[in-house]
Every structure is written in structure tokens, then in C-alpha cells.
Amino acid sequence: MSDVKKVVLAYSGGLDTSVIVKWLQETYNCEVVTFTADIGQGEEVEPARAKAQALGVKEIYIEDLREEFVRDYVFPMFRANTIYEGEYLLGTSIARPLIAKRLIEIANETGADAISHGATGKGNDQVRFELGGYALKPGVKVIAPWREWDLTSREKLMAYCEEHNIPVDFSSKKKKSPYSMDANLLHISYEGGILEDPWAEAEEDMWRWSVSPEQAPDTPTYVELTFEKGDIVAIDGEALKAHEVLERLNKVGGDNGIGRLDIVENRYVGMKSRGCYETPGGTIILRAHRAIESLTLDREEAHLKDQLMPKYAEVIYNGYWWSPERRMLQAAIDETQKNVSGVVRMKLYKGNATVVGRKSEQSLFDESIATFEDDAGAYNQKDAEGFIKLNALRLRIAAGKGRQQS
Amino acid sequence: MSDVKKVVLAYSGGLDTSVIVKWLQETYNCEVVTFTADIGQGEEVEPARAKAQALGVKEIYIEDLREEFVRDYVFPMFRANTIYEGEYLLGTSIARPLIAKRLIEIANETGADAISHGATGKGNDQVRFELGGYALKPGVKVIAPWREWDLTSREKLMAYCEEHNIPVDFSSKKKKSPYSMDANLLHISYEGGILEDPWAEAEEDMWRWSVSPEQAPDTPTYVELTFEKGDIVAIDGEALKAHEVLERLNKVGGDNGIGRLDIVENRYVGMKSRGCYETPGGTIILRAHRAIESLTLDREEAHLKDQLMPKYAEVIYNGYWWSPERRMLQAAIDETQKNVSGVVRMKLYKGNATVVGRKSEQSLFDESIATFEDDAGAYNQKDAEGFIKLNALRLRIAAGKGRQQS
Amino acid sequence: MSDVKKVVLAYSGGLDTSVIVKWLQETYNCEVVTFTADIGQGEEVEPARAKAQALGVKEIYIEDLREEFVRDYVFPMFRANTIYEGEYLLGTSIARPLIAKRLIEIANETGADAISHGATGKGNDQVRFELGGYALKPGVKVIAPWREWDLTSREKLMAYCEEHNIPVDFSSKKKKSPYSMDANLLHISYEGGILEDPWAEAEEDMWRWSVSPEQAPDTPTYVELTFEKGDIVAIDGEALKAHEVLERLNKVGGDNGIGRLDIVENRYVGMKSRGCYETPGGTIILRAHRAIESLTLDREEAHLKDQLMPKYAEVIYNGYWWSPERRMLQAAIDETQKNVSGVVRMKLYKGNATVVGRKSEQSLFDESIATFEDDAGAYNQKDAEGFIKLNALRLRIAAGKGRQQS
Amino acid sequence: MSDVKKVVLAYSGGLDTSVIVKWLQETYNCEVVTFTADIGQGEEVEPARAKAQALGVKEIYIEDLREEFVRDYVFPMFRANTIYEGEYLLGTSIARPLIAKRLIEIANETGADAISHGATGKGNDQVRFELGGYALKPGVKVIAPWREWDLTSREKLMAYCEEHNIPVDFSSKKKKSPYSMDANLLHISYEGGILEDPWAEAEEDMWRWSVSPEQAPDTPTYVELTFEKGDIVAIDGEALKAHEVLERLNKVGGDNGIGRLDIVENRYVGMKSRGCYETPGGTIILRAHRAIESLTLDREEAHLKDQLMPKYAEVIYNGYWWSPERRMLQAAIDETQKNVSGVVRMKLYKGNATVVGRKSEQSLFDESIATFEDDAGAYNQKDAEGFIKLNALRLRIAAGKGRQQS
Q: B345 near A202, Cβ under 8 Å?
């Protein structure tokens, strides 16, 4: 284990990763570089500096990655209307590739030969961190303390803290929650505790980012979202950066009780787990994006996108952002977004994010053809007969030859 | 045109199809058989008898198809979590195959050589009726009056009525609506009128089956839905027939403002159209079915279902229910539903249909493995290392050879 | 019919399209512009000029499109390893988009308002020409004489010639064949005649581009094909233009009895038809391209390509080259070809095109890992245990809960 | 390691698995049950009995599984026209599920708690054996000696033999080959040796099951293959069992130089490997099956099969035969095969397996419609206009609104 000289750790500043700092130093007798990023998790990142220093860390990286996160990861993913298993908006999954990329870049900058993270051996996140790491630096050594050490209970962890003089108030406030949580600009997630019984309803006081629909205002809020090439660039006419869009929508969505989700999902490592999620802004974006696409996408490209989406979601969920198959799918998706521009009007009300209008200069909706009124010859109804006849031909031949018909 | 001897008409009893009866008799000099079905459209079908008789029809079929409709068409479709273009629950599409089948069966019983319907030449329904007809009776003659006649405005239609003594009160009440509507047990749809402008918000008084979320009760309603092999067989413990399930869920869903939808969709004939839909029961079933599947389906079959679903939806939307490709997809879908049994608990509140619990004797959720607590060795975290290493191998080799990494 | 002023006709110089020139002039009282292209069909195109002049045509376009055809249509298609229905290399399909594009461009140059072609109403080619035409010039008028006129037998056609002084030697030599044929640089096709019985073996003297395997040389020929980004750029080290590659491979392939195919295929218009094809060069390219990809593509992008290919083939076969869905798929395919460079060595012998070696500087084949000999730790066999254990986890959980196992 | 009481070993009777018998006895201090199956590998299985007895094995299973193998595994797979990565007929992959199933059944019969096999830690076979084992008996212990022991070179293995009195003539004749080989009724495979250089051409004397095309007879052989529901049931009119079909076709195919393949493939464990295969019978079946399907399958089900096939191939290649996703795909495939009956006539000549005729009472080929001659009104060419117009509508609308056209 002595072959590691320097390791870059994804460091939250919380108790667990503080223990990891010490454990790495001790176990591998190596230098630890900490990397703490603001990706919108809603906690100050600057305090991590003093904590890392207190643990003897000399190279400390603290960065605001919010814009990059939304612009280069969240938005490209939403271009595909990505949902995992029909429900999950991939809030945790999409943050990992960026962290992995920065871990590797910092390893290269600091001459580190290893990276480390605080994810357990049961979950998806270890896979996402490590696949990213290996894809970007094939010879990197990965240290996953939770798979190695024997600090397998809270008691042992606390004992280790005491023994090594790690201040227990490093324990972040959120850790007092009975849930395992993760947050970034796209969502906050909850696992564990009573959620381990899929029949048990989540308790109201678990949720942190949104009011319940019951508590939301009694009057609706309307927003107008302006898209350019598939991404939202303005809200109610005000131009915003990518992360500002998401922050704004999280606020208005959360205020209106939007974006709560309670599911059982299939992890890549082979087990089912129950998770609750709040994704207020993402829930709004998803519906709005579909609405602007409904006007501006050709039917066949829209259908092909829908057929590819589950695969694309799986690729991201499983941790293969930094892979040729993701780039291949992204190329197809992005090719379709050139004309996905326009405005969507939404009504937000007590948990409902409803599309009530959409318009676009790139609209393919042709009122003169679609109308129930006189279309002045724009569409020749007689064409439908030939259309149907030839589409039916294979079915008629089969039936004529006595094939099963129903 | 004189080669048609007898034609079976899908007859609603309304003004338009009453005109068609007369027009067919005149134009083709043939006998007309009327077929009127109760598929849950919410209007009495029996009055169609007197109207048909008044028009000189001798063979009149009036049938209650509600159970068959839900059991053999709606439920099989929901087994696939079917949604067209990410939003539409296919309420109109799924009713057409049954009508087409009965038209052909009645043609065979009565010795008719033709069938007819009241769908226009611009829409999907003509395609669905006719593909079904041709698939089930390849030599059948199809008469689509809207593609043939010159009664292309309401005025001409009224003039025709007057001229032919068709009582104008044949005009059903719903036709006073400015919208083109269609209803069955699964949904009611609205098109035309101000909806032809996709930016215009639908007016509150258009909606007929649901209250608005604003008008819905201030306290939630909980329901427990029991599934067997993918279909709901009981609500709150009470065993129900298929159509009773849907009727019950339409009621409770509509009362809670659930199931409204406002979209622009791509028709099979090549144009975009804007439609509004109310699908209260279907909206509940879709979410509940996904929830019971989340416990009982294997991950890979679930993902494969998700990948096939858009194609299956397209097949149904485009009118190919009676096709080999639909049977092929159905075989795959039904194979997965053997263990999709259990109970889902849902909270219905002001437009929200939220899953709050799910349980099943066929559950694949393994709490002893998924737990954040000590799992007593049920899962060996060290296995994850090899899992990740080999999944990363192709990426590492590529990166090691200098391939693009990001 | 008098609203057409000028029509651009895809003119082969043969009897049928010469009749069409006259028929268009007469029927539509319009000017006809002829367009004749050399796409490698193996016949002189220049003689078409005198024939067109003799028919009174004033604007005559004769063009050599061989390079553009192979570079911009054939090669992009082969990047996807495109095969329709498991067998057909799409030789006819891929030529139509280029013809359609030039028809429209010439219409725009000459101020024509219509285009015309000599394809029948039963086949795929009418669809391909017309979809291309409409996609590139939405208001264009399309005239398809074979769907309109009454010259439905060879006798009537000959009578028309006599009546209108069209020299019968306009009838090209190939028309003496009992088969309907089509040729371009990618292939020559045969339909009709005795082929209409799918049980009948094609006669040896039908085939024109290849010797039979029996007649091919008794010693093999080896060729080395150099790929750059998915396309062949050199043969046996000699740099060649796209069409020269195909010409060269057609020659050496045909000489070795390679590329004959005899199939029943499903036309887009709904019927099955039997066709025989000779595609000597294409058959070689397909296998060689797969071989160079086998070294240079990542597994998952390769598998995704294979899953998308049938759709891509269908898009091209059905005539949707000029569509957003084709561009979307092409974007995905082309994204994967950046590293598809290297050399493939093939053995050609009596109908067999066999890959016997492949090498590439972009190779992902890692001998040090794959070896059966000592790999010096490049691959840790123990990783396989965890890999298998976690991949098996979902299956084990299901079996442990008594699920069907076989 | 002492917790294993009895282990069932897939025993070939060769040197390697004989060493494994001894090593298991020693290392785990457990009883070993041997299982040797004839799946058409071309070697006597009965001699394995004496060898096992000499090693002290008391429970010895020797079975002829040839019919079951072809009937229940090979034929179902060929119904899907299964090919991995465009080339490989999955000869090794498809034999593993049956072996895994018998290992588990014998474990259940003999009260064994473990299974073992002789596959290495680098290949696919370990995965296939073990996934099958875990899927069928979730608590089984799997012992993979090649991943555990230190007998990592031939020298160490030989030393172990000497030390333990394992007669070296247990080494089967085929092991003198420089290649790693595997054989069953579907194919024989070669890996390793000079094949580890993908540029090196395989040597002629490597191939064992087929003559080279050069050495094959100068006159073709014709065979007629009779299909019922997708499987071959007779050759030249003679009814045969499944394995007899394959044996017969291997003979005639091999005699005519058919079925050699030389590829680089992507293993599930993440590396590329080069393999050569002889699959004479399978090569013939694949083409014949496509030919009978070309007459009897509907177009859309055929295309859907083609789209699903790569996934199905991947499932089998990766070892997931005993999985819900395989059963789901099989249900779809088998649904399509009900009418895949008829006769295919093939010409076999010097490496070429060419379809020259096909006929079926279930044929959907309609000569009266497809004909180039007068079709007496069976097909109305005018229908094509409407068909094309409506299929073009979306493209025309887009072009009319100025969208990219080429």
C-alpha cells in the first residue's frame, strides 16, 4: 500500500471525508490533496479550507463549478429529455462526471498518482467516480476507503475521530438527518432510514427544498422560458446563465411544491433501492423542453430521440459519461437541437408544472394545414386514401393468405 | 359507385353520422347497417336506435363494449407504460381497433361488403379504422365520406339536413362546443377552436371530466391499487372488473383535478396538431403500474421495456393494433408481467397523483442487501472493485492509447 | 394540367424516358429539361444529348457525378455497415438522393416548376425521387408518367413511338434483357422475368458484372485496403478518389466472382419482390470496414452502431436520405469514425471476400492484455470474480425469491 | 476454504480439468463430482470415466446432450438470425447455458454445494458458466481454479501433474495444437498462438472442420432445407432430429469449404481478442433461415427482429441466457416464427452458401401484385401518389419554413 505518493480526495468538509483524509494519510503514508466544489449543494464550501488545513492538508482546491455543471452536464442531458426508469431525473448521476474530471485534472496538476472518494461499495457513485477517473487517466490508482477499511459503523467512525483528534463538529448539520442525502443544483436526494421499507410513506419533514403541494400558495405562478438550441437562456425575458436558470427555477418550483419524487430504482451494482428526490427546476425544464420540441422537432427525429433516450439515461446513470457511446449519442441528440428555440409558458401550482402555451419562430406547426376550418387546399384529403391503402397492403396480403388476423 | 350493396357504419347517433347514413344510402344506393357502441363516452347509446330507424336503417347494432375495451385493449397497452411522444396516453388511438373489429364482424354477420366511418381525411382516426378493417377483412370496401363528399362546411351540412329531413336535434349536445371532441372510458379529447393557436391557454370551461387543481378538495385522497400480472384487479381491496376499475379511477381522479394534458403532437399523416386531453384514471394507472413494476421487474427487462415502449406507442398511435409487429411486441411485454402483482398506495391531491408506497409478494427489493446498516455479509463491497475495474477496462485501454477522453 | 411550365426530367437516353419527354411536352404543353448523369451505370451518357435534341429539348444537362456519388452518399452509408433486411447493400436506394438533389437544383437554375422521372408506381424509386424532391423544394410539382398515362404495355409504348416518330433504337441495348435492370457504380440489379418465381434459380447469363465463382480464377487475389476515418482512401498503397476505389474493387471483385445476391425483399409500398444484385466492390468494402472497425471501435459504440443500423438502412431504403432523422443518425455514425483508420488485407477467391489481416495505429487491440501467455500483471484475473458477482446479483436475488429460473 | 463439501466440475477428461480435480480435492478437501457431456465436440466422452475414476472420483456423470443442445439452444438462437458484432455465430456462447444448467442440476441431485469449471479469468466463458450457475441456484459456491491457483504456466501445471501422479497422456491430442480451441456441434474455435497478431493470416493447417475453398470440390452441391416454425426439420426431404440436421450440414458445409471466419471481437470483460471459427452448418442455417423468413415474415416484424437482434446476441454472448431479458426477447422472436415454414434451396460451392430458391405455403410473396406485367388491377398505382404526398408532408412543411434541406 506504500506505492501511493499523493492522492486527490473529493472532500466535502464533512465528518466522513475528514476521517478519510486522516485514514489516507495513515494507511497509505501519502500526501492528501483535497478538492471541494460548489455545485449548488447549498452549503458553504469555503469552511472546508480550515478543516483541511487542520488535518494537515497542504494543497487545497475549492472551486465554484456551478455554471460549468449546469451548462456542460445538466443542460446537454436535458436536451435528450432524459429520465431513468420512467421517473428519475438523474440528479446525482450527472454531477459525478464533473467531479471525476476535476479530480483527474488536479491529480495531473499536483503530480498525484491516486484519487479517492467517500462513496460506499454498494452504490452507483463509486462506479461513476471511478469509471470517470479510469477513462480520463488510465493509470490512476483509485482508493475507495469504504470498500477497504473496517470503520463500518458510526460508532467505529466516532471512535476513530476521537483517537485522531478530528473535531466532531466537522459533522455537517445535514448528517443529523436519519437519511443519506446528496445535493447539487439539480436535486437533493434521500435514502435510508424508514425509506428502506418501500411501503412506508416518506415523512413530511424529510423534504428540504420544496414545500408540500398542500403548503404551496393558493394562486398559480406563471413563467415564460426562452429556449435557444435546446437550452433555456432566459426566464420571463431576463437573460440568465445556465446555473442562474436552474437556481431560479429551483426557487419558484420549490415554492410551488414541484419536483418531489419517491421511487424504487435499480442500481448498476444489481440491487433495488428506494430513494426520494426533490428536483424542482429539473421537473420544470423537462416538461418545458418537451413542449418546445413539440413545436420545433420533426416527428421522426423526435421519435428516434425517444427510442434512444432510455439508453442514454442508462449510460449516464451507470457512470459512462466519459465514454465513446455517450459522445456518440450526444452527437445525435445535439444534431436535433439546432432549431429547438422559442418560448414556453408554464403554470406552476401546488405540485403541478403545466405547459399552457408554446411559440417559436422555428415552429413546424402549420395552422393552415392542421385547421378544422377550410384549409384552402393546403392539404388534399384524397391523398389519405392512397396513404392508407399502401400502408395496409402488407396487412391485406397477409389476411388474404389466411394469416392470423387478431 | 354502385358496386356496394351493404355498408356497416360506425354510428354515434349524432348529426354528422346521421348525415352519413343518408348520404351513403343516396350516393351508393346501398343498405346501411349502423353500429353504435358504449365504450364509456358518457352518452346514452340507446337513443341511436330510434334515430337510425328514422333514417330507414333496418339492421341496428347497439352494444356495451366497456369491459372488453378496457380488459383487452386499455390494460394490455398500460402493461407497457405506453406514452406517445412523452406525454399522450393514447386515449383515442386505443379505442379504434375495437371499433374496427366490430365493424368487420358485423359486416361478416350481415353480409355487408363495405364499412364506413365519420373521421376526416386529415386525422389519425381514418387510418386506424381503415388499417384495422383491411387487416381483418382484406377485401372490404372502405367508404370515408369526409374524403369524398362536398359537404365541407357546417352550412352545407345543415342545408343537406334540411333537404333530407334529418332532424337537426340529432346534433348532440356536445357539438355545440367550439371544440372537436372524442370520448371513451380512457379519456376525452379537445381539438380545434382557439386551441389551433399553440400559444393560447385552454379556457377553463373547456374541460369536462375533471375539476381544475384549484377547485379540487383541500385534503388528499388515498387509494390502494391491487395489481395482478400487470393489471389492476381491485381498488382499496374491492375486486372490480376492468372497466369498473377505470370508471372508479376516472371519478376519483377527476374529482382531484388529475389527468389534464395540453400538447402539440405529430399526426401520422404528417402534420402537427394541438390537443387537450383529460385522462384521470389512466394517469393514475400509469404511475401506479410503474411503481409496482419498480418492485417486481428485473432491471434489464424493465430497461428493455422502456426501449421498446416508444415503438409500441407509435404502432398503436399509427393504427397498427391489428398487425404482426404489435403482437410481437405484446408477446415480449406480456412475458414480463407474470410477476407484476402487488399493491400500490397513491395520494391524489389537486392534480398530483403521487406514489407513496408499494408492496408485493413478488418483490425483488431486498432490504437486507440494500440497507445502509450492517448487512451481515449479504453483499461483499469488495466485489465492486473488480466490477468497476473490468467495466473500465475498455475505457482505460482507449485512454492508454491516447484516445479522446473528454 | 396546364399549370406546369417547365419540367426537369431524369433522362437516361433510353426508350422509356424518351417517350416521357414527348409525353410531357404533349400532355402538359410544357418545356422539358433533360438531366442525364453518369453515376457509373456503365453506359455512355453523352449520346443522350443528340437524342434529347432530336426530341426538341433545349436545356440539356449531362454530368459526371461519379465522384460525388461515392464520396457523399456511398461512403457515408458504408460507415454504418448498412444492410437492408440482412442482405441487401442498397445499391439502388443510395443513388436516388443525388439524382433528386440535382433535379431540384436544375429546376431552380432553369426556373422549372416541376420534376419528372421514369419510375413505376409499384416500386421504391418513385418514393425516393419524390420524397427527395419535396424535401428540397416543397412546392415542386412532381410528374410520374407511369402513374398517369395509359401506356401500360410495351405494345402501347411502341405504338406511341411510331406515332410520334421516336426512333426505336433509342431503346438501349440492355432493354433487350428480359429483366428490369438498374445500375450505378455500387451495383447492378435485376428484377422481373423468371425471377418473379422465388423458387426459380437465376440463369447464369443474367449476371453482367461478375463471373460465376466457378469461372473465377483458381488462385486467390489479395488486396490491402487503407481506411481513413471510415472511408477507403487507398488500395495496395495507391491513393485513390472515392469513385476510383469503387471502380477498382468492382473490377477485382467481379473478376473473382464476388458480390452476387439473390433475395426476396420488402418494398416500402407494401409488397415483397424478388431481386438479384451484383455488388462486387460494396461486398468487399462492407467486410473490410467491419474488420477495421473491429480493431479501432470501442465495444459499446460498435454495439450501438449495430443497433441503429437497421433503422438507418430502412431510412435510406424508404427514401428518406434528405430527412432530419438521416442527419441525426449520420451525426452519431460519423462521430464514431474519427479513429477508424488502418489497413485491412483481404483474400478474394471464387466468390469469397475474406479478411485475413488488419492493422491500425488507432488499434484498441491490446496484445499484452489479451495474450494467453503471461501478461505480467496487465490484467488481474481476480477482478473477474467481483465483476461476475455483481452482474449476477439481480439474477441471484430473483432466484432466491423463487422466480422462474429457466 | 473448508466450507465446500462437494463440488461438481465440468470435466473434459483432458489434462487441465484433470489437474483441477486433484487441486479441488486437495485445496478444498472436498469430494469432486465430474460431469462430461457430448455436445458434439468430436471426441469420445466415455474415456473420461476411467480418468475420473483414476483420480478418485466416485460420482461420474457422462451424458449425450447433442439433441438437447441443438433443439433447445442452437435452434432458438438461429430463429433470431443471431450474429455478434456482424460476424460471429456465437458457437461457444450458446453451449455454456446448457453446461451451467446441468452442473446445477447435478449439484442438486448429488447434494453438492459448489460448481467448478476450467475457464480462465480473462475470457467470456467463466462469466457464462457462473452467471448461469448463480441464476439457477443463487446460493451456489463457484470455484474458478484459474483465478485462484498459481499454476499459471504450462511448466507449473506439468510439475503439478508429476507431483500428483496425473498421467500426462490425459493431455488430449488437440492440446498439442498451438491454439486454444473449443468445439461443439455448432463450431470449433481457435485463439492464441500467432493469432494474437491480428495482421497475421491464419495458417492453413490450423483449420480442422473444413477444407479450404481451394481444396473443395469443383462442382457445387445443392441441398433443400425444410423449415417448420423457424427450425430445420428435414434435409433433401429426409426428416431429421435437430442435432442430425446440424451434423449433416457441418459435413456438407465443411466438405465445400463453408463457414470459416477470422475476426477480432470484443469480450465482455473489456478486451479485444482475435479468434478464428469454423461454423459450416451454422453458416448455411443462417442464410437459409433469412431466406425462408424473406418469404414468410411480415416486413415490420422482420425489421423489428433485425433491430432487436444485436441486443439478443449481446445477451447470449455475455452469458445471460438464463435471464428475464433473454426470455422476454425469445417470446418476441418465437411469436414471429409461427409461419416460418417452407423449403429453401441452397447451392454450396467452394466457401459460398448461396440461396437459389425458396418456397412456402405460408408465403406472403404475391406474384400477382409484384409482377412487372399487367396485374389486372391488383395494385392501383395511383395510390402511390397519396402515399408519397403524406409521407412527404412533414418534410415539405419543414422545407417551406426554411429548415435545412441538405
A: no
Q: Which chains touch A (3 or more CB pairs under 8 A)?
A: B, C, D
Cell output for D333: 422472436
Residue A400 and residue B138 in contact, taking contact as beta carbons nearer than 8 Å: yes
- Structural domain boundaries, residue A55: 6-71+89-164
Q: Chains meeting B at 3+ CB pairs closer than 8 A?
A: A, C, D
Tell me the C-alpha distance between C350 and C355, whole Å.
14
DSSP C52-74: HHHTT--EEEEEE-HHHHIIIII
The conformation of residue B138, written as its DSSP 8-state character, comes to: T
Decide if B344 touches A, using CB distance below 8 A: no
Identify whether residues A65 and A157 lie together within a single domain: yes
What does DSSP assign to residue B84? B
For the CA atoms of B20, B25, B28, B34, what is the dihedral angle to 10 degrees?
Answer: 60
Confirm if D283 and D242 have CB atoms less than 8 A apart: no
Specify whether the CB–CB gap between B260 and B275 falls below 8 A.
Answer: no
CA atoms D244, D249, D250, D255: torsion sign: positive
Q: What are phi and psi of C96, to 5 degrees?
A: -70, -40
- Is-catalytic flag, D327? no
Alpha helices in A318-362 (DSSP H): 324-336
How is residue C84 annotated by DSSP?
B
Q: What is the pLDDT of residues C102-119, one digit of tens each?
A: 999 999 999 999 999 999
What is the full DSSP assignment across A230-267? TEEEEETTEE--HHHHHHHHHHHHHHTT--EEEEEEE-
Cβ separation D404–A369 shorter than 8 A: no
Considering only CB atoms, which chain C residues are within 8 Å of B394? 298-300, 364
Quick one: B26 and B59 in the same domain? yes
Task: Answer yes or no: are the C-beta atoms of B31 and B6 closer than 8 Å.
Answer: yes
D311, D336, D383: best to mutate for the A interface, most A CBs within 10 A? D383
Q: ipTM exceeding 0.90?
A: yes
- Those residues with Cβ within 8 angstroms of residue B370's Cβ, 6 or more apart along the chain or in another chain: A122, A196, A271, A272, A273, A274
Q: CATH number of the domain at B156, please.
A: 3.40.50.620
Are A301 and C325 an interchain contact pair (Cβ–Cβ within 8 Å)?
Answer: yes
Contact B397 C363 (CB under 8 A): no
Instruction: Give the total number of structural domains in chain A.
Output: 3
Residues D172-223: pLDDT tens digits?
544 567 899 999 999 999 999 999 999 999 999 999 999 999 999 999 999 9
Environment class of D206 (CB within 10 Å of its CB; exposed 0-12, middle 13-18, buried 19+): middle
pTM for this entry: 0.97
Other beta carbons within 10 angstroms of residue C86's beta carbon come to 21
- Measure the CA–CA gap between D74 and D231, rounded to whole angstroms: 10
Nearest 5 degrees, angle CA D222-CA D228-CA D232? 40
d(CA D268, CA D274): 14
Task: Identify whether the C-beta of residue C107 lies closer than 8 Å to the C-beta of residue C9.
Answer: no
CATH number of the domain to which D196 belongs? 3.90.1260.10
